[in-house]
Design goal:
Layout (H helix, E strand, L loop, with lengths): L29 E2 L11 H9 L13 H11 L6 E4 L1 H13 L5 E5 L5 H8 L3 E5 L8 H7 L4 E7 L11 H10 L5 E5 L13 H6 L3 E6 L12 E4 L2 H7 L10 H12 L1 H24 L11 E5 L3 H13 L2 E2 L1 E2 L8 E5 L3 H15 L4
Parallel strand pairs: 1-10, 3-4, 3-5, 5-6, 6-7
Antiparallel strand pairs: 2-8, 7-8, 9-12, 11-12
Bound molecules: 4'-deoxy-4'-aminopyridoxal-5'-phosphate.
Pfam families: Aminotran_1_2 (PF00155)
Pathway: Amino-acid biosynthesis; L-histidine biosynthesis; L-histidine from 5-phospho-alpha-D-ribose 1-diphosphate: step 7/9
Organism: Shimia marina
Length: 361
């Protein structure tokens, strides 16, 4: 043995499993496990990609001025208070790195996004789970779980993998009730699927202890580009920029994200198409005895009788070339998370689940 040891907490981090788009022995595979936009990205982004005669021998800008200016312009936000990262995952990492460490606690809801405990363990902080009420974030439970050691509270609104959402008043009550020195992260990965929702931007303006995070991975159809951003007070952004690698985004990433944010017509179109197919899929599943909560996102959390049935259905879907997401690790062993794909994918998955429920396994 070399005696080389990782930092405390590192070995508590589970290796990430997921993201696969293949099923052994099956040719025609439909992936509905990562909440990707089935329509892809807009033509404006494809054009921008074709045109980027980029000087790749040069390091990129360290400040992402043009992307931040575009985001600020489109959303009516101060560009100086925006920070960009490699997906919103990296922005969540900046926050955790800068504000929590060994001996601190990080609180998140029972069925919260899988990155939250990973981030806590990464910095040696203790992950603390607050119970939910029927798969909906419970603000009182979060407040009750907080102590003077709590440095960060993560809440995705709408939430992954439940798809549910709480109101702006509840988020404000949460921000107001947190211990002194604790940051509320309003994770807005699915904001754009909710028409007219500001993703927590107003809350950031009104409360100095709130950070909003957003992503290009979902409605913009750019999961592979890896760009996200955060919005907070100038004081917090100045701190976060100190833990950001100066060249964290390539010029390809920033140029395409800028083109994407300027094309809000695409966002509107994708939101409408997602809403239409989401209702269709939820109703189709309900009719075959698979209920789900009203989703505010681009996925549905399908509920089965128990873990055995959910797993058997997942196995059956896989045998049919359909990849959905088991969410046992999120404390939802009797559920499967199904991304709202394009119309043929929605029909295909509903049909296969119908066959499974009808005993054709
Ligand atoms: N927050 C939530 C709630 C998510 O579901 C995701 C993606 N699954 C992310 C953050 C991170 O997204 P990205 O890093 O692709 O921006």
């Amino acid at each position: 043995m070399s005696g080389i040891q990782p930092q405390p907490g590192i070995m508590d981090i589970d290796l990430y499993v997921g993201g696969t788009s293949t099923v052994e022995g099956v040719k025609d595979v439909t992936k509905l496990s990562s909440n990707e936009n089935p329509l892809g990205c807009s033509d404006v982004v494809k054009d921008a990609h074709a045109k980027t005669g980029l000087n790749l021998h040069r390091y990129p800008s360290t400040e992402h001025e043009e992307l931040r200016a575009a985001i600020g312009e489109v959303h009516g936000l101060d560009p100086a208070r925006i920070i960009c990262g490699v997906g919103s995952d990296e922005v969540l990492q900046f926050i955790t790195h800068a504000y929590a460490g060994v001996g601190d606690e990080i609180v998140y809801p029972q069925h919260g996004f899988s990155m939250y405990p990973i981030l806590a363990n990464m910095v040696g902080a203790t992950p603390v789970v607050a119970v939910e009420r029927e798969r909906v974030v419970d603000v009182d439970a979060i407040l009750a779980a907080c102590t003077e050691k709590t440095k960060i509270v993560f809440v995705a609104n709408p939430a992954n993998p439940t798809g549910t959402m709480i109101g702006g008043n509840d988020m404000a009550r949460l921000a107001d009730g947190l211990p002194e020195g604790c940051i509320l992260v309003h994770d807005g990965a699915y904001t754009e699927y909710v028409q007219g929702f500001d993703g927590g931007a107003g809350l950031v303006e009104a409360r100095s202890n709130v950070v909003m995070t957003r992503t290009f991975s979902k409605i913009y159809g750019l999961g592979g580009l890896r760009v996200g951003w955060g919005y907070a007070s100038q004081e917090i952004i100045d701190v976060l920029n100190r833990v950001r690698q100066p060249f964290n985004l390539s010029p390809i990433q920033t140029a395409l994200a800028e083109a994407a944010v300027r094309d809000q017509e695409w966002v509107t179109k994708c939101r409408a198409e997602n809403a239409r197919l989401r209702s269709w899929l939820a109703e189709a599943l309900m009719e075959i005895g698979v209920p789900s909560d009203t989703s505010c996102t681009n996925f549905i959390l399908a509920r089965f009788a128990d873990q055995a049935e959910a797993e058997a259905c997942d196995d059956y879907l896989k045998s049919q070339g359909l990849i959905v997401r088991r969410v046992t690790g999120y404390g939802l062993p009797n559920c499967l998370r199904i991304t709202v794909g394009d119309e043929p994918s929605c029909r295909r998955v509903a049909h296969a689940i119908g066959q499974f429920k009808g005993g054709a396994r």
